[in-house]
Specification:
By secondary structure, the chain is mostly beta strands. The chain has a nine-stranded antiparallel sheet with strand order 5-1-9-8-7-2-3-4-6. The termini are far apart.
C-alpha cells in the first residue's frame, strides 16, 4: 500500500547538492490501471498501481535491463525522466523532490510517503512546499506521460 501526498514546489530548498539523488526514467504500458516500467539508476522495475489518490495499492517487481528495454519500446506516451532528490524531513519522513526533464522541464513536485493515513492527514509541510496537489490526478506521473507539451 502506498500512502503519499504531493506538493508543487516553486522555491527549491537550499543546498540541493548536499542530498542523495536518483536518476529516474519511467514509461507507461497502461494508465488505467497504472502499469509502469522504471529505471532508477541501474535498477529496473515493473510497477502496478491501483486506483486512488492519497492511498492506493502498489506492487513492484524487479526487471532485467533487457526486459526493461524490450517493454520500453511498447510504452505509450512520453517517457517521464526526472532527477529525484531525497531530503530528510522531521518525524523520520523524507521528501522525494522530483525535478522533471523535457518535455516537462519547469515542473517540480515533492512527494512524501507515510506509514499510515493519520500521519499523512496531520502532516505539516515545510515552508518550501507549495500547493498540495495530492488529490489532483493531473500531477500523477501516469497522467504526465500523456501530456503533449509544445516546445518553444
Amino acid at each position: 500500500m502506498e500512502i503519499e501526498r504531493k506538493f508543487l514546489v516553486t522555491r527549491l530548498p537550499e543546498n540541493l547538492s548536499d542530498y542523495a539523488y536518483h536518476n529516474i526514467e519511467q514509461a507507461y504500458l497502461c494508465t488505467d490501471p497504472v502499469v509502469r516500467i522504471r529505471r532508477q539508476d541501474e535498477e529496473y522495475y515493473l510497477t502496478y498501481k491501483g486506483r486512488g489518490m492519497m492511498v492506493r495499492e502498489e506492487y513492484n517487481l524487479p526487471l532485467t535491463k533487457a526486459a526493461y528495454l524490450h517493454l520500453k519500446e511498447k510504452a505509450d506516451g512520453n517517457i517521464v525522466s526526472k532527477k529525484r532528490v531525497l531530503i530528510p524531513l522531521e518525524g523520520n519522513l523524507k521528501a522525494e523532490l522530483d525535478l522533471f526533464y523535457s518535455p516537462l522541464p519547469d515542473l517540480v513536485i515533492a512527494e512524501v510517503e507515510f506509514p499510515d493515513e493519520e500521519s499523512a492527514n496531520s502532516f505539516q509541510p515545510p515552508s518550501w512546499f507549495g500547493q498540495d496537489v495530492t488529490f489532483d490526478s493531473h500531477y500523477h506521473n501516469s497522467y504526465l506521460s500523456t501530456v503533449t507539451v509544445k516546445e518553444p
